[in-house]
Amino acid sequence: MCGIVGGIAERNVVPILLEGLRRLEYRGYDSAGIAIVAGQNIRRKREVGKVKGLADSLDADPMSGTLGIAHTRWATHGKPCTENAHPHVSRNKVAVVHNGIIENHEDLRCAQKRNGYEFTSETDTEVVVHEINHALETTGGLLDAVKQTVKKLEGAYALGIISTASPELLIACRKGSPLVIGVGIGEYFIASDVAALLPVTQRFIFLEDGDIAALKTDQLVIYDAKGHVVERPIKESGLKPDAVDKGNYRHYMLKEIYEQPFAISQTLEGRFVKNRLQENAFGHNANEIFDRIKSVQILACGTSYHAGLVARYWFERFARVPCDIEVASEFRYRNPVLAPDTLIVTISQSGETADTLAALQEAKRQGAKYSVAICNVPESSLVRESDLALMTRAGPEIGVASTKAFTTQLVTLMLLVIAIGRRFHLPNALEEKITSELFGLPGKIEKALELNDKVKELAEQFAEKEHALFLGRGTHYPIAMEGALKLKEISYIHAEAYPAGELKHGPLALIDADMPVITVAPNNSLLEKLKSNMQEVSARGGQLIVFKDERFSASDDGNVQYIEISQVENEVSPIVFSIPLQLLAYHVAVLKGTDVDQPRNLAKSVTVE
Ligand code: G6P
Asked: Is Transferase one of the keywords (predicted)?
């Protein structure tokens, strides 16, 4: 959701900013731009499309400078075009890059127009840069001008600010959108995400909401929301610069699909003692909280929501804890009623999804006393705002379509089911069985990955399709939903998922020889029911493609194609069945020639509403 990078150094920061943008491109890729302070001028370059376009333009007409900001955009206000691309500049004096949404931009714009400011874009951001410029004329100092301006801003923002008035100063501030400071030797950088700065530093300061940081080559001062000077700790990142490389894979998504066995081993690593989940796996005060809770409310968006849907079945089936789940963007505005002693479980790869954060805050406003975040980013806002957290340890996920984050979320959620289930009705024997299934997962996933060639062949039948239906039952219904989401995200084929039992209540009308119906068919107690649903499709000439457990005895109906998954126990089978569906979406997208890692109109981290 827009990537920001900036730097102040004694060397030329332009190549560093450009590399930072390449690494942040997953956040948005509608347009890219850069601005530097060059004497009495702001020099700026902006290009529509990907960072590559900006890099080509810089090759043709190089820029250099020791103070600069840059941006890769995911359009919210105003279409993707050069005029709307960041950085935005006010009267050749101040330049700003912004991630987030300024909600009161219309009021500010009216006032600024009255003050003689001319607008060159349709963005909400342009009001920020004019406001700072206006304040600069009256306060005389850039820092004071920024402090004055942010008081007037409503909404969410991470900002990088430079000005010809202070050629030795880079200002960064955040409220509701992420921003980190990269600490170098005699130089400082800012970025939306640590990954952008790994080539120049491994040392980071994570700004808190309301912070304003004033950065000079030899000095860093941070002011908190109340204006007090504060110290924020410097943290060492364990990530290597190549942690976000594609390696030998054609796409990040494929690399991340193949990383799943390792990612899951990492998620399990060190969390068990003698095959039992450690008592303090969720932190030292976790047990106190788990002892008190009486129900669970899950909140998440997108793929993370699908992980939560699976977990709801697990919480109720294994632990016998009442569990509800809702899409975060609905929950936050619904004025929900929460039962006392409900544990709020938020799930998010990034930990910065605006709706999920707002839903957590809403739950707290409604009296929720306990929260746990299932997250992939330890320093994220969600982790910081939750009482407890368990990291998914998937490693950086760059492909916009989530894969390894999803399966590691499922594993982590199962750990939560165990931790809570022990206090409810999870029998020891079942806990042991689940644990041993979890440890067998990396091997099962390796096996599922061996289906790659078969799935690739199957994908050829989809390249010309415009629609697809996905069916599943029980815990595999959310897996069907995730399969449909993957396909639509990256291949742009309209795909919908249904609980197979619902077929006869509407979607059956869509079935004809042209409609692929992908069915997720594990070997569980619902299999016979599912077979009847499959018959309903076959009888109407539908094109059935069944991902089935090898123990499932297939009919020899010529209309049905089977892809066989090696035997996997019911407790963890949703995790294994996700793999061929990820591969299917991937290969269909490759055949269709879409942009697999950066599909149109989407962004990885949605830090705006
Ligand atoms: C975006 C991404 C999805 C992701 C969703 C929630 O839509 O494209 O892949 O599932 O955000 O993100 P989160 O970081 O909260 O899991």
From this structure: yes
The CB of 302 under 6 Å from ligand 1? The reply is: yes
The listed CATH number (3.40.190.10, 3.30.70.20, 3.40.50.10490, 3.40.50.300) that belongs to domain 252-592: 3.40.50.10490
Does residue 300 sit in helix, strand or coil? strand
Name the residue of 192, 299, 301, 345 to mutate for ligand 1: max ligand atoms within 8 A of Cβ: 301
Domain ranges of the chain: 3-236, 252-592
pLDDT of residue 550: 87
- The pLDDT of residue 557 is 67
Residues of the chain with pLDDT under 50: none
Which CATH class, in words, describes the domain spanning 3-236? Answer: alpha beta
Let me know: does 390 contact 419? Beta carbons within 8 Å. no
Judge if 3-236 and 252-592 fold alike in CATH terms. no
Q: Which ligand 1 atom lies nearest to the CA of residue 409?
A: 16
Three-class DSSP labels, 9-78 = CCCCCHHHHHHHHHHHHHHCCCEEEEEEEECCEEEEEEEECCHHHHHHHHHHCCCCCCEEEEEEECCCCC
Residue 26, pLDDT score? 81
Question: Which pLDDT belongs to residue 537?
Answer: 84
- Active-site option among 2, 301, 323, 375: 2
Whether the CB of 356 sits within 6 Å of ligand 1: yes
Give the Å distance between the CA of 576 and the centre of ligand 1: 21
Instruction: Please confirm, yes or no, whether 604 is among the known catalytic residues.
Output: yes
**How many whole angstroms from 405 Cα to the centroid of ligand 1?**
10
* pLDDT given at position 556: 65
Please report the pLDDT score of residue 382 as a whole number.
93
**How many angstroms does the Cα of residue 532 sit away from the middle of ligand 1?**
34
- Other Cβ atoms closer than 10 A to 92: 13
pLDDT score for 201: 95
Q: From 142, 27, 56, select the one nearest 95 (Cα to Cα).
A: 142
Residue to probe by mutation, ligand 1, list 604, 607, 608, most atoms within 8 Å of CB: 604
Specify the residue with its C-alpha closest to ligand 1, atom 7: 302
Quick one: pLDDT at residue 527? 84
What is residue 163's predicted lDDT score, i.e. its pLDDT?
A: 97
Q: What is the reported pTM? A: 0.83
Q: Please indicate whether residue 50 is annotated as part of the active site.
A: no
CA of 606 to the centre of ligand 1 (A): 7
